[in-house]
Structure formats: C-alpha cells, structure tokens
Specification:
Helix content is about 25%, strand content about 10%. The chain has nine helices and twelve strands. A three-stranded parallel beta sheet has the order 1-3-2, with helices on one face. It has a three-stranded antiparallel beta sheet with strand order 8-9-10. A two-stranded antiparallel sheet has the order 4-5. Helix 6 crosses helix 8. The two termini are about 30 Å apart. The structure holds flavin-adenine dinucleotide (FAD). The site of flavin-adenine dinucleotide (FAD) has 34 residues, from helix 1, strand 3 and helix 9. It holds the Pfam family GMC_oxred_C. Belongs to the GMC oxidoreductase family.
C-alpha cells in the first residue's frame, strides 16, 4: 500500500459533489500509484474512489494472509468461477480480488518478480510502441526503494521510489525453505532444459500455507512445492452477468483447457519429485507425503495418471488474471486500449491496471502493474501539463 498526501479519498458510499481534474476508479495497486503521482501536480484535483474500506490492521500480519482472501476477512470481492470438470474438482473455485485500500496488493503474497526482459520486448512487438524492456525499466526503477544496498546500486534497481522491496524479514532457521503467509523461495526454470539459463516456462514456489488452510504446513514441518505455469495457453473470459451493476460478473477462466498447460504442469510435478531427490533435500530429511489426494485413490501414487488426476482436482489460479482490456493497435479487434492506454474511440478515458496486459509476464503481476501505474501517470502528465 502506498501513502499519498494531499489526496481526497472517498468511499463509493459517499462521493461528494464536486469538480475534479481526474477521477480514478479503484484504489488498488495501480490506482494508488496513479493517485500519488498525479497529486504531485498541486493544482490538480484528483478523486480516488474505492469500493472497499481501509486495510485492517490484522492484514499487516503476513501469517494471516490466507484469511485476507477468505470471505470472513471482509476485504475480498469473494468471486467464484463457473465450475468445470477441468479444474477445482468440478466445483466453483474461489477467485480472490482485494477489496480495500491497496486492492489486491493488500491481500497478495508480496512476491516481487518483474518477469523476463523478453516479455516486455514481446509486448512492444505486438504493436505497443514504448513498452519494450528498455522503455519500462526506468519505471520499475522509479517505483522501487530496494532495501538491499548491493542490488540497489546496480543499473536494474532503484532506492528512491515509494515501493519498499526487501528480503522477507522473518527467516526460520529450522521450517527455512518456507515462510508463514508467503513464498520465501521460488525457482524459475525451463522444463525443456532445467539446468540452463534460458527462458523459464515453470516457476516452483516453496509454500507453507497451501495444504492446511489457515494453519501453516510449516507448523507440522511441512513444505508444499507448487509448480506454476508461467505463460498459460488456456484463455478464459469475464462477462457481465446481469443488468444489475452490483451483481458479480461471470468468471470462466478455462484453466487447463489447453492440453499444453496440463502437460507442462505434469512436467512440473515430476521436476518437483526430482527436487525432493536432491542431496540437499535428502540431507534435510525431507520426504514426499504420499497420502493420496481424495478422488485420486484409484491411481498409483506418483504415476502420470495419478498426477493428471491431482492436477484436475487441486490445480488452482495464482491470482494473476490479465488481458480483459488488452492493449494493442485499434486494427486488432481484440484490443481495448492503445499504447497510450486510451480506450479506443473515446476521449479522456484511460484504463491503467493489470487488465491491459495481453499476457501474464514470466513473473508475478504486482511489480508489472505498479510499473504500468508509473508509466500511465507520466502519459497523463505529458498530455495535460501545459509547460
Ligand atoms: C490472493 C492474491 C495473491 C497475489 N499474490 C501476488 C504476489 O505475491 N505477487 C504479485 O506480484 N502479484 C500477486 N497477486 C496479483 C497482484 O496483486 C495483482 O495483479 C494486482 O494487485 C492488480 O492490480 P490492479 O491495480 O490491476 O487491481 P487491484 O489491486 O485488484 O485493484 C482494484 C481496486 O479497484 C476496486 N474496485 C473495483 N471495482 C470498483 C468500483 N466499481 N468502484 C470502486 N472501486 C472499485 C477494488 O476494490 C480494488 O481495490 C496476487 C493477487 C491476489 C488476489
């Protein structure tokens, strides 16, 4: 969450009449960045409207993270997906989205991973001038206050921005591959050639909280290895579901619709087993928990058939949806905004958030969307600031 002085912040329940130079809808990761940067121009009046309330104090405790996306936490939209036999065991899966000051950045896992250089170069090649790696790097740097002096002194990082980036403070010397409430260790690698430094297609997160809900698995000396497909090929959609604007949208993510994603996850499961067989893991006494996942008992544990079944029952999202308002040239009918983030065929309306990304980057989305907020703010300033 970011701090922004001289800013009027009103709940959607109480918007005062008035005239504003800019109205920002949603005080999430990008909305907050925009509000902060636009209010640097002191004669601009900025209204930031947020549907949720303040971020509660308990949400600052990392171990309570799972609670943040739970209906009981009161700071999530509590969306559910349309059920499909392909994922979540055939029932609706939760589709968390933060609903408070800070948006999903207030409920997320705090992992900072920008993606690959090639992600941004690809974005530019799709017709989005000014979005190549060399153009966006300066906005990553501008946003960042990196607490590691060694990293901060390199040409890739910044130390003066508003977003603190640091190593996780609470290192457990004994449950050390995991951390309560977040992922402490992550590996990015190519399934084709895991030991070579080439573009990754899989991420492996070492988590503690997934298997036991609110009680961290680390409490029981457990680790959950999560293979993650970085650039899924399956495509879903979000649709307005009712004439009542307050009703939730229909969310059909179509996870694992494309067979290539299932095959890649299967490779991920097998690589996870290889990780378990490394001398480091063996020395630490870590062994696989071979308790069968309910619903997959008919298969032999560890076979491809077994993992196929486990994937269909337990695979879920890592909460990085993008592309509902894709950026691209107007000649492409699937796009909504141009490379200056202006909605096609409208004036004075921009979309500046995760939805403009045509694909997920090979990382996590929050760093990327904060960069989008920084870049979007500069675009607005360039349009409206009269020298
Ligand atoms: C549980 C979870 C874990 C995640 N973990 C990570 C992670 O570890 N690392 C990472 O990089 N990314 C992570 N992400 C993803 C990342 O947080 C999001 O991609 C990012 O926050 C999206 O930013 P945004 O500005 O597009 O939207 P949001 O931050 O979601 O902000 C949207 C805001 O708009 C408000 N809003 C919506 N509709 C209205 C309306 N009609 N009127 C007023 N306000 C409205 C919402 O309440 C919300 O505050 C995670 C996301 C979730 C949900």
């Amino acid at each position: 969450m970011m701090v922004f002085p001289a800013l009027r912040l009103l709940s959607t329940n109480h918007v005062e009449d008035g005239y504003y130079d800019f109205i920002i809808v949603g005080a999430g990761s990008t909305g907050c960045v925009l509000a902060r940067r636009l209010t640097e121009i002191h004669h601009w009046d900025v209204l930031l409207v947020e549907a949720g309330g303040e971020q509660p104090q308990w949400d600052l405790v990392p171990a309570y993270l799972t609670f943040a996306s739970d209906p009981a936490g009161g700071i999530d939209w509590n969306y559910k997906t349309v059920p499909s036999p392909n994922y979540c065991g055939g029932v609706s899966c939760p589709y968390p989205r933060g609903k408070c000051l800070g948006g999903s950045s207030s409920t997320n896992y705090m992992i900072y991973a920008r993606g690959s250089k090639s992600d941004y170069d690809e974005l530019e090649k799709l017709g989005n001038k000014g979005w190549g790696y060399n153009d966006v790097l300066k906005y990553f740097i501008k946003s960042e206050r990196n607490g590691d002096p060694e990293l901060a002194s390199t040409k890739y990082h910044g130390s003066d921005g508003p977003l603190p980036i640091e190593n996780y403070r609470y290192q457990d010397e004994i449950g050390s591959l995991t951390a309560a409430g977040t992922i402490q260790v992550a590996a990015f690698l190519s399934s084709e050639n895991p030991t070579h430094n080439i573009e990754p297609d899989l991420e492996f997160g070492f988590a503690s909280t997934f298997s036991n809900g609110l009680i961290p698995a680390s409490y029981y000396d457990g680790i959950t290895i999560l293979p993650i497909v970085l650039r899924p090929k399956s495509r879903g959609y979000v649709k307005i579901n009712s004439t009542d604007p307050l009703k939730p949208p229909m969310i059909k993510p179509n996870f694992l619709d494309n067979k290539a994603d299932v095959i890649l996850l299967l490779k991920g499961m097998n690589i996870s087993l290889q990780i378990l067989n490394t001398p480091t893991m063996k020395t630490a006494g870590i062994v696989a928990d071979t308790t069968e996942i309910p619903g997959c008992e008919q298969h032999n544990w560890g076979t491809d058939e077994y993992w196929h079944c486990v994937i269909r029952i337990t695979a879920n999202t890592l909460y990085h949806p993008v592309s509902t308002c894709k950026m691209g040239p107007q000649s492409d009918p699937s796009t909504v905004v141009d490379s200056k983030l202006r909605v096609h065929n409208t004036s004075n309306l921009r979309i500046i958030d995760a939805s403009i990304m045509p694909f997920t980057v090979r990382g996590h989305t929050n760093a990327c969307v904060i960069m989008i907020g920084e870049k979007g703010a500069d675009m607005i300033k360039a349009t409206w600031l009269i020298p």
